[in-house]
Design brief:
- The protein is of the alpha/beta class.
- The chain has 2 domains: 5-223, Rossmann fold (3-Layer(aba) Sandwich), CATH 3.40.50; 246-329, 2-Layer Sandwich (Uridine Diphospho-n-acetylenolpyruvylglucosamine Reductase, domain 3), CATH 3.30.465.60.
- Helix content is 53%, strand content 14%.
- It has a 6-stranded mixed sheet, sandwiched between helices. Strands 7-10-9-8 form a 4-stranded antiparallel sheet.
- The longest helix has 30 residues, at 216-245.
- It is elongated, with a radius of gyration of 23 Å.
- Bound molecules: adenosine-5'-triphosphate.
Length: 330
């Protein structure tokens, strides 16, 4: 019997994005019990047998809904049935810490996945994000208007995480599960139109596909790939400049910075503010533009305020990043 194209697509994603993973390595697959991550686990087990990997399935119980422990136990059983060599379930305490519930759950999940990877000595942790997740991320980023990085989408790899299914559609993961007889879970949140992402998934993207032609999700995901490459290049340039120019006190010389192209210069300023202690979640593009105005539109302004009780001031040919009390005395 010939291999179903959807199953082939998922396996190809795993083969391609884990080509450098050595025989004998341990690979953790993070499984929510949804179609994406179960299709990913099945493909990783299949490819892992050929490549000589130990495959560990891990599921995280956020404890946010009634019955979540039973759900986690069910996912563990499924992961074992699909052939994971080892299965793990971890319950986490989701503590907001100023974050929204989704972001808090995500942070707790990543922390526990890290512990799991340490525990089993894993080379990589796999996440089941698909091309459709990527397209939604790009659209959401566009509407948020927070700059190139937010429309550059998710990375295929970061730290020890990999996303092997970013070229695979959600439909293919669902079909791959169906043809392999894998029962998957439908997260009730996926139907809750209170979430912007759900409205993008269920209304905006289908409308775009209907009005502009099929393939919009693919095009958005491809655009994100190209943009991410450019962003990474500019980030690398800026990082090298920052390392070269910064003084021991974190200050920056005005003249060489003014000569740098704007996209690099503003990245250097952002790096300097972060290094001085500005919280990244609160440091917005407007703050960086205000810092930039001390370089490109300076008419004697004393300082500009930054988050994290910081001030940026221009004195004696340098940009200084100061804590508030110091700002007064220097
Ligand atoms: N409860 C869970 N346990 C283990 N892995 C999970 C769990 N929930 C999600 N994942 C992993 O994360 C992937 C993405 O899931 P989902 O899109 O629901 O999360 P998200 O909050 O958007 O994640 P991210 O912050 O990584 O974008 C899943 O395919 C799976 O690999």
């Amino acid at each position: 019997m010939s291999l179903h194209p959807a199953v082939a697509a998922v396996r190809l994603g795993v083969r391609r994005h884990l080509a450098d993973v050595e025989p004998g390595s341990t690979v953790v697959v993070a499984c929510s019990g949804g179609a994406d991550s179960l299709a990913l686990l099945a493909a990783t087990v299949f490819e892992g047998e050929k490549a000589g990997w130990q495959v560990v399935g891990a599921t995280v119980d956020h404890g946010l809904q009634p019955g979540s422990a039973e759900h986690a136990a069910h996912v563990v059983a499924q992961m074992a049935t699909l052939g994971a060599g080892e299965t793990l379930s971890a319950r986490v305490q989701v503590d907001g810490g100023g974050l929204g519930p989704e972001a808090a759950a995500r942070r707790a999940r990543y922390a526990v996945l890290e512990q799991v990877a340490e525990h089993v000595g894993a080379a990589v942790i796999l996440l089941g994000h698909t091309r459709d997740d990527q397209a939604e991320t790009v659209l959401l980023g566009l509407t948020r208007g927070s700059g190139g990085r937010s429309i550059a989408g998710m990375r295929r790899a970061f730290d020890r995480y990999r996303r092997p299914l970013l070229d695979v559609s959600r439909d293919d993961t669902v079909t791959a599960c169906q043809v392999q007889g894998i029962e998957f879970w439908e997260d009730p949140h996926n139907h809750d139109r209170g979430f912007t992402r759900v409205r993008v998934r269920r209304t905006v993207l289908p409308l775009l596909e209907q009005e502009l032609g099929p393939g919009v999700a693919t095009t958005l995901a491809r655009t994100a790939d190209q943009l991410r490459d450019d962003m990474d290049f500019l980030d690398d340039l800026a990082e090298a400049d920052w390392v070269e120019l910064r003084g021991a006190d974190g200050s920056l010389p005005v003249d060489p910075l003014v000569g740098r192209p704007g996209p690099v210069r503003r990245r250097v300023l952002r790096l300097a503010a972060l290094a001085a202690g500005a919280p990244s979640a609160e440091l917005f593009h407007d703050h960086v533009l205000a810092m930039d105005s001390l370089l490109t539109d300076w008419h004697g302004q004393k300082w500009i305020d930054l988050p994290g009780h910081l001030r940026c001031a221009r004195r004696a040919g340098r940009l200084l990043l100061l804590r508030h009390p110091e700002a007064e005395s220097r």
